[in-house]
Amino acid sequence: MIKTIDKQYSGVVEEKRSRFISNIFHVENINEVNEIIDRIKKKYYDSNHNVYAYRIEENNQIIERASDDGEPKKTAGAPILDIIKKQNLCNILVIVTRYFGGILLGTGGLVKAYSSCAQVALKEAKYIIQEKGYKLKIEVEYDNLEGFKYFLKTKKVNIIQYNYQKNVEIIAEVTNEQKEEILNKNNKYFKVLQIDILEQKYIKK
């Protein structure tokens, strides 16, 4: 299980005429991280620095990285990554954008400013617990649909969509425990015709 945030949050800090803007995101893979970083850099194209730190779990490994983006070494990205790790957060990307105000802050001032700006957004965030699960495509007969819907409702399964074809295909996100219950062919509420695992991912608990 991991602790993460549910969506994007932002915050602003001003220090000696420099303006710091933090944006934090829930992310699940490196591609998503890179896409967001590129998007933020384009959005704040006239800024002086776009510092970032992220920590994600991908392929059963924790991947973490920090970038000072031109600021003195370990004065920007590294302090932000330390905050992420101390709060035991994962699948999160923090980007802090700086507009230089003309007054040098010094190494200590930079660490304080970047850390404070990241904390402003993190204090606003809603934290959630996720556990490893699956995105499934489940096929049931029309006669079994209502019983299956009842099961999904009682188990609080996240339904993405229904596809009504020869049989009914349900795209759903499930925990490992929920998947095992669906696989139980003796379930009194429904009979599953086929289950396909579309991807393995983290599911909100």
Describe what this molecule looks like in 3D:
This protein has two domains: 2-125, Ribosomal Protein S5, domain 2; 132-204, Alpha-Beta Plaits, CATH 3.30.70. 30% of the residues lie in helices and 42% in strands. It contains five helices and ten strands; from the N terminus they run βββαββαβαβαββαβ. The protein has helices at 30-43, 77-86, 106-124, 145-154, 176-183; strands spanning 2-5, 9-15, 18-26, 49-58, 61-67, 92-99, 127-140, 158-164, 168-175, 192-204. Strands 1, 7, 8, 9 and 10 form a five-stranded antiparallel beta sheet that branches. Helix 2 (77-86) crosses helix 3 (106-124). The longest helix has 19 residues, at 106-124. 33% of the residues are buried.
Summarize the structure.
This protein is α+β, with helices and mostly antiparallel strands. It is built from five helices and ten strands. The model has no long low-confidence stretch (mean pLDDT 91).
Layout of helices and strands:
Layout lengths: L1 E4 L3 E7 L2 E9 L3 H14 L5 E10 L2 E7 L9 H10 L5 E8 L6 H19 L2 E14 L4 H10 L3 E7 L3 E8 H8 L8 E13 L1
Antiparallel strand pairs: 1-7, 2-3, 3-6, 4-5, 4-6, 7-9, 7-10, 8-9
